[in-house]
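Rather than argue in generalities, we reproduce a single protein record, letters for residues, whole numbers for local backbone shapes, just as it appears below:
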Amino acid sequence: MSLASVVIVGAGQAGFQVAASLRQEGYDGSITLIGDEPGLPYQRPPLSKAYLLGKINENALLFRPADFFTAQRIDLVHNQATAIDRQNRRVLLASGEAVAYDHLVLATGAHNRPLPVPGAELQGVFGVKTKQDADALAPLVREVRNVVVVGAGFIGLEFAAVAAELGASVHVLELGDRPMARAVSTEMSQLFRQAHEAWGVKFDFRQGLTRVEGSDGKVSGVETSDGRKLPADLVVFGIGVIPNTQLASEAGLAIENGIRVDANLLTSDPHISALGDVACFPCLQNGERPTRLESVQNAADQARNVAARLLGKPAPYGALPWFWTDQGNLKLQIAGLSSGYDSTVTLGSTEAHQLSVLCFRDDQLVAVESCNRPGDHMAARKILSRPPRLTAAEAAAEGFELKVWEAANRD
């Protein structure tokens, strides 16, 4: 395939990695990277933890400094893509300009699901998605006394840990019955609940929000779904994201919980790829069912896959999914997808905050959750990436260690 120009819409992890990988693999054509935020492309995961705490600065967020883009001849365009002219292979920008492409890559990501209650527009109500969000939030979280967090997923709990560390009184509202219920096992939820409670965080499960209250345009409290009033100087919500499909949808591309792509990450238009948080693909680890994953690993690996295909080395995408979250002194790493698991085996200790939960489905290992056990995580990624698969009976044996089993069963 001879491509004179590749245009990438979205300058997050996936978009940046496509551009970098194309150059790394020897592509010599034109690369245009279109992003709708000011400044250089940056990492998002630290925004809700290390960056908020001041442990890293703005420069440490950047994927690469400015001279990288110059040296690699990556044209970074700060503008909003407003339409795709598929017939003439052009991306139209809010500025009125048009950028021509031989191949278009959509890495448009996702946006925070809005808080659907009265008062969500008040000053002091935040989602954490962009550097601008984090910059506005950082001074406030150091000043306030009462923080309400809506949602006990990764983002909500990362922020809860930060706020507690900085001395705030933190109250978490969660519609589910345990922390991170959609992502981890009951055993791992229990460990994280106990840790957060030890840090002073209060939880209300099976509890939602009916309104945010305020005066003079600023938040002062919230009303819960059971009618209680909680004081709040700051409300932070993390209740999921919505894929940014509008550009693709208006261009007539197939949409299915994101932009629908095939195993090679091609959309319904052979001149357009999609990847990262916005792409819904047939996931090998999920029975090839249409799946949309929100992770740095998935974005980066899909980007490398697309770059290789554009350079004549196509291969179906099948990388093992893995995820992580840092909360206080806890690092949770997950390898694989645990949906539908029917049994678990635990290694380590909940009390010591060093625990691995091995999740099995039909007696086959499908995922491993590891808290402060990085060796188990690395072994799990290797085990889940190739046969043979570990069985529950083997894992339950006295003295079992993941690293030892992995080493003994290498090809």
The two ends are 35 Å apart (CA to CA). DSSP finds eleven helices and 26 strands in the chain.
